[in-house]
Amino acid sequence: MSTSSEELLAEIRDSILWITINRPDAGNAITPAVRDLIIKNLDDASTDFAVRAVVLTGAGEKHFCTGADLRAGRATPAPRPEGVPDRTTGEAAHTIRTGIQRLTSAILDCDKPVITALNGTAAGGGAAMVLASDLVIAAEHARIIQVFVRRGLIPDGGGTYLLPRLVGLQRAKELVFLGDDLSASEAERIGLVNRVVPSDQLVATVTEWATRLAQGPTRTIGFAKKLLNRSLDSDRATMFEEEALYVELVTGTEDSKEGISSFVERRPTEFKGW
Predict the structure, then answer these.
(1) At 135, phi and psi to the nearest 5?
(2) pTM for the full model?
(3) How many degrees, rounded to 5, is the angle at CA 212 between CA 224 and CA 163?
(4) Residue 122: CB atoms within 10 Å
(5) What is the average pLDDT across 163-182?
(6) What contacts 163, CB < 8 A, 6 or more positions away?
């Protein structure tokens, strides 16, 4: 089951959940409501047998997501006792943890593979969503911008954690310190995107990849995602132990049995997703 709104479109087609940020006039910047709806769809996808792959994208061809919409209205705060200032130490950090960092975590923790169809500029929190995705296919005109330094800020959304792990420490510092636009071709060269395609081929290419994932052994891919996401934070002994345990878990799935049977019987494999 998917949950949509006017500003966040979510639709399941051929076992692929397509999530589209539908705010092109606002650079596909996300409001708290849109952010929470993306999180809900990703969380629901983990346990929905109808979903075997997820695609994130933005409406139009100019922007994927330019981060949080700073013009969006904020929720009315709870009344404060007399003498409490309008802003206290720790409140902003709490907002980040429960906001953009929660969105990034939802992408990382989704049990289904998540592909970003990078249809345009990704900046701020939008760039963090790209970093958290399992696979990224970019239109040739797309850009990724660590825009924070231009506003006197540092990356949020887990950017300082994810970026060095993807491109190395020195390159991460360059992108964060200077805040320059990163072209799709350069992003591919340094490992931030998997493939760059002409704009008119983006949807077709993403659909091809997502279909292959949706027809694959869903639990196996999900377990592999967990291990790979943990790999850069664990020592060899821990990873070898977890790998062995997950391999044992995978052999108990119906898809694993089907994979072995189809090989022995010399017939096409038909994975079901469980």
Answers:
(1) -140, 145
(2) 0.91
(3) 50
(4) 33
(5) 97
(6) 131, 146, 155, 172, 175, 176
